[in-house]
Design goal:
- It contains eleven helices and nine strands.
- It is of the alpha+beta class and 289 residues long.
- It has two domains: 8-139, Jelly Rolls (Sandwich); 189-288, Arc Repressor Mutant, subunit A, CATH 1.10.10.60.
């Protein structure tokens, strides 16, 4: 996510605070401190690899891979220290939402399902997927973060925009965790492949590569994926890349070549060809109107 470049406080209201943090001068042992408010939910997206986190209110240390996230409830104000032993910039995106806002949004008294959702949030059941590892961000989550960072309007319009995007993020999280019940009862090859593509579409991957990395026969990958999603693996990868490219193209501060690389194209000519095939115009023409 090379276009995530803004740093510090991005948005603040009575109910929500959004912070983007990146160590501007990463060294071998880069460290940042994160604050969680009292009675608040914190959506934390880890945007650089091998981030270690230790909260002051517990002795457990966590190790996060790039693009993992957690949804954490803190009953009291607390601080956490994040650090990395690599020389890559330590980078994270944090959304803090106060408890009463979430309570009013979910309205747990309206149904048992809603009450269960809030209970799971308070008990921090949305930290680990399949009780093993923090979940990975999906393509849609990446795009929402980019939209939150690049949004330039202020005032009421910005507040409504931010709240709408946060609601969408919560929906995506609930859906992602609900899918774990399906994967336990089905063979789930197509789901596993879709998840892998969602997390790696920006790389130069093919069905053969997916087969080698997941240990699943590439013919099975092609057959089951198309049966489940009515499109080929390569078409799905292309759809995700073009969806991201169209979102990025409106930012004139990003070079076309950078967008191509960010969307998984080694050569800008291949990116331009795919973009024109999808949208009927070249990236430059769409950008310049």
């Amino acid at each position: 996510m090379k276009n995530l470049s803004r740093n510090g406080l991005l948005f603040s209201s009575d109910n929500i605070k959004i912070v983007m943090q990146e160590d501007p001068q990463p060294e071998k042992f880069s460290r940042l401190h994160m604050i969680e408010s009292r009675a608040s939910f914190s959506l934390l997206f880890l945007l650089s690899p091998n981030i270690k986190l230790e909260a002051n209110d517990c002795e457990t240390k966590f190790l996060f891979r790039k693009n993992q996230y957690i949804l954490h409830y803190s009953s009291q104000e607390s601080t956490a220290e994040l650090w990395t032993e690599s020389q890559e910039a330590l980078k994270y995106f944090q959304i803090q939402i106060n408890y009463q806002y979430i309570f009013n949004l979910i309205d747990p008294e309206s149904s048992k399902e809603n009450a269960d959702i809030l209970e799971n949030m308070i008990r921090n059941n949305y930290i680990f997927l399949h009780q093993r590892t923090p979940p990975y961000m999906t393509v849609e989550m990446h795009m929402i973060l980019n939209e939150l960072i690049s949004y330039s309007k202020k005032g009421m319009v910005q507040r409504l925009f931010v709240e709408a995007k946060i609601i969408k993020l919560l929906i995506l999280i609930f859906e992602q965790f609900n899918e774990k019940n399906t994967i336990q009862t089905e063979p789930g090859t197509s789901f596993v492949i879709k998840k892998f593509i969602d997390e790696n579409y920006h790389k130069n991957i093919r069905a053969e590569d997916i087969g080698k990395l997941t240990g699943i026969n590439q013919n099975k990958i092609r057959k089951e994926f198309k049966a489940q999603y009515q499109m080929t693996v390569s078409d799905y990868i292309s759809e995700l890349r073009m969806l991201k490219a169209k979102k990025m193209i409106i930012d004139k501060g990003i070079m076309i070549k950078e967008i191509a690389i960010e969307c998984g194209y080694e050569y800008v000519q291949n990116f331009t060809r795919a973009f024109k095939k999808k949208f009927g115009v070249s990236p430059e023409k769409l950008r310049n109107g």
